[in-house]
Specification:
alpha+beta, 5 helices, globular
């Protein structure tokens, strides 16, 4: 759950293993969640949200802060995602049909590549394959994702109005964050949040399976990502506080669920902004 980079919104398998549903609070309409990043030990106060999440009727919208912040909408009922680029005033739709078209074209391209390389001397073939791996690394943000492991420490702590379980996340044995996790039933709209998130997780799992067929499977799966969304799936609840740790073991930042509020969605709530153009995702 990398709260320090809300604009990245990287939705790969490990990243995308969770989402949110309606709770025992019997709320009408939708629920908005405001998350605020602070220095360690600092209360969120009246700070502007770092990330805002809207959930209603199986729809989920996530928006980061900042001039280059990303925005994403997911529709559970039709298993479709919309990724919005505010800088370019454009958006891209991604659904199962589009994923299948991309997967088919990738497989065809790799089949052509293998056929063409069959007659190339081994030394030249290795050079070309190395160049392809390097290029694919650049396309997938140029970094191999860390493998994050989550563990329930058994500790409990009260965070504001919430009773939480404390989880630790580690990479190669080094603690990178602590998550203070409230049960879904304790968070307003928690069950709706959970179901929407699970729908998105399923969609991305199917997407990565489709895109990972054939010779590119290993290469694609090496870049799974580590995002601020990551922990939702692994901890089985809503992390109402997340504490990030640096390489030296010191706490560097905290992200708090600063508040929730109900809202009545309208046609614009889960739609691309008016005036934005749609971009094709086909290769």
């Amino acid at each position: 759950m990398k709260t320090r980079h809300p604009n990245r919104l990287r939705f790969f398998p490990a990243v995308l293993a969770g989402a949110v549903l309606f709770s025992a609070h019997a709320l009408s309409g939708g629920v908005r969640y405001d998350l605020v990043e602070t220095a360690p030990g600092e209360a969120p106060g009246d700070s502007a949200p770092t990330v805002t999440i809207w959930v209603a009727d199986g729809n989920l919208k996530v928006r980061g802060s900042g001039d280059d912040a990303g925005e994403m909408i997911f529709y559970t009922d039709r298993r479709e995602m919309v990724v919005i680029d505010h800088d370019d005033r454009a958006y891209t739709r991604l659904d199962e049909a589009a994923v299948e078209r991309i997967a088919a074209r990738m497989e065809a391209a790799m089949a052509e590549y293998e056929s063409a390389m069959a007659s190339v001397p081994a030394a030249q073939r290795q050079m070309v394959e190395r160049m392809m791996r390097d290029r694919m690394g650049e396309m997938l943000e140029g970094e191999e994702a860390p493998r994050v492991e989550y563990k329930d420490t058994g500790s409990k702590e009260t965070v504001g109005e919430y009773s939480t379980r404390v989880f630790e996340a580690a990479v190669d044995g080094r603690k990178v964050r602590e998550l203070f996790v409230a049960d879904w039933s304790e968070v307003a709209g928690g069950r709706d949040f959970s179901e929407a998130f699970e729908g998105m997780a399923s969609f991305f799992s199917d997407m990565m399976q489709a895109l990972s067929r054939g010779p590119m499977a290993t290469m694609l799966m090496e870049w799974s990502g580590d995002s601020w969304l990551d922990g939702f799936a692994d901890v089985g609840g809503f992390p109402v506080k997340i504490r990030e740790y640096g390489p030296g073991g010191d706490a560097e930042s905290e992200t708090h669920l600063a508040g929730t509020d109900t809202f009545e969605p309208d046609e614009s709530t889960f739609a691309p902004p008016s005036g934005y153009r749609e971009r094709s995702i086909d290769l």
